[in-house]
Write the structure tokens for this entry.
Amino acid sequence: MYFDAPIYFVFLPIVVLIYWQLSHGQQNRFLLCASYFFYGWWDWRFLSLILVSTFVDYHLARWIGATDDARRRRRLLVISLVMNLGFLGFFKYCNFFIDSFIDLLKVLGVDNPNRTVISVLLPPGISFYTFQAVAYIVDVYNRRLEPSSSLVDYALFISLFPHLIAGPIQRPGHLLPQVATPRRLDSDQVFDGLMLIATGLFRKCVIADNCALVADGVFSGRMGDPSLGLLLLGAYAFALQIYGDFSGYSDMARGSAKLLGFEFMVNFRQPYLATSLQDFWRRWHISLSTWLRDYLYIALGGNRGGRLETYRNLMLTMVIGGLWHGANWTFVVWGAIHGVGLAIERYAREALGLGPARSGPADAGGASLTSARAWIARILVFHVVCLAWVFFRAMTVGDAWHLLSGIGTITWQPELMVAAKVLMLFGAMMLAMDVVNETRREEYLLQHATLRDRFATALGFVCAVLLLSASNINAFIYFQF
Amino acid sequence: MPSSISSSDASHVAEAPLRAKVPLWASFALVGAIVVLLVVMELLARLMVPSLSRIEGRIVTEYRQALGIRHGRNGVATALVIGNSLMGDGVDFKPLQRTLADNGVNAQRLLVEGTAYLDWYHGLGRLIDAGVRPDAFVLMISFEQLIGKEFRGAYSAHRLLRLQDIPTVAGELGLGNTETSGLVISRLSAYYGLREELRKQVLFKLIPDLSTLTVKLTAARSSDERARYGNVALAVERLTAMRRRVEAAGSRLIFVEPPAPVPNAAAMKERIDAAARLAGVRMLVPVRHDELGKEFYRDGYHLNERGSAFFTPRLAALLSESMGQQPPLRN
């Protein structure tokens, strides 16, 4: 079930109310059942996959933790990785690789190659829980983590419903101890949870879904032939949509977790206020970017080799990060744009003798919100990010090029101004929230204000959601990954 | 880039200023306030939406009038003309109603924009359950809408569906449990069913010229749908299902195909004729698809005033004749 669907607001209160009546052991078992119900609500058949991988990984980790035989440990790690990445590869990339292979054969002159069509349904959340399982098994292998002694605890770490479908990807060292130790009902945490859910609903239902109307119109071609105006509108609209959509989802996930006494990692910190691409990746989908850094980039060698190796590792990490989103060349190009951008940025910093990119609010060492130079950098970075979003949103690389081909065409249609007004209305709300959050160093609007102000803010968000929530057809974008 | 993120968590989290502990009752109060807001919205949707929106007001009025339709007596037949914006734009209803009245037919209209087969098949069930009994249901949607999967979602669930129809609709559309539960809630809650209308009203207040954009988006989408070719077998199946449903209530079904510029008008005409013949439904095609030029359309799909002035008298003549030809079936 989606977090913004009314049925979720039937499910969540029932779970929360029962949950707090139970002892710790009962809570974990109850939450596990609730999480499997939540997951099975899509399609109960997919439960078998998560059950199998949970059961196998739990035992493999136990065996890895119990032996000092390096070869046996490595063999067990490989078995786990092959299983997890094999499931992910089969369900997510099977048809992509078949299609790409056939395209290659056509390029090589093989006419009408015989294609076996395999209709593979993508189990929801497989990319997220697979990465979480891989992090667990690698941490156990590297002796950074003791294997869980309880199958229920481990299963709950993998399946806890607020993060199950689209993250934030939880680190085992962060979440497992929370699962294993008793939680206590904290009234601050509960109120923060409600605030985050209200904020997330506002970001998703008001900002993202309304901007989606413009983005869908542009990318489907219904707004007309490509032009510079259309390209900018489409890119801006999608930039707002995906940010509102995914950050809204993350807020709701974190808020739901707080109601159950769990703390999830922050996943977004005002990414469009980044003054460099490096800064952007410290603010955007943080749970994925840090996962890629810790389990891929560093495993590839990170920046320990020479300059060229570092660039190669950057590119590989970003391209694989792109491919993680889905089996489409558009995601590869999206990752490559970020990889090239990061490499250029790194080269320029080294060549100019500048230090590492600054990040965060001004009083935490980041760029000031009143500096004109910083705003120029922000605008530049935002447009590089938007360029990458064009590929991310387009159905094919060809579609993206088609839209980009209008960059030199300046035409005017009255509906472009109306679309711009829609974006200005919702974009201004998003920007205002981000600037306030950045200035006050808050995770949600007015987090540190008085109870009365927070109460009013939450009710304001709920009123806006009730009056302006858009159609019920826009599922969360990241649910498909 | 990840390479230099200093920590996987909390690198920018501010040290929270000391703030007073929030009592637990505050959370309950917030949830309570949200529940009150929901109740207020539900009441607003039930009482105010028809007066806030001209279209909603018209639909509610027409629905109420439709509820009073019964089989005709004393030589006066009755007809309920149902359809979507193709009917709304293409038929000037007052003159049609007058012409039909002159020919002994008392006609009422129920126009719900954005609807298609699925909305009306189930909508017929709800109307019949509510006691609506015209001698003929006259349905005016395009052939493409007859065979398509378009469905107005939450709005139709609220206005046109019965609760028991929802699993069938969900099955036909391949909806998951979440979407299906959304339809159930839309059926029960006026706010949830009508919230898109509410949003439109608010957005139009904020951006008065928004219609420039929405017309562009919907018109282009309609043209895409028009370009598709029909599936006669499905049309027969659906027409037959609707015919059986209305015949069981002692009425009959007349299907009116509105004109639209399609790539192959002759092939389309053949399909329509074949489907109607096989389904045993009276099909009226007052104007051939290739008969009207672009100047008769508002957006390449909906007729404009000139188109309506051309189409309405033809429909009136055909419908009068059709209503007079076959006596209605009675249970």
In short: Chain A touches chain B through 83 residues (CB under 8 Å).
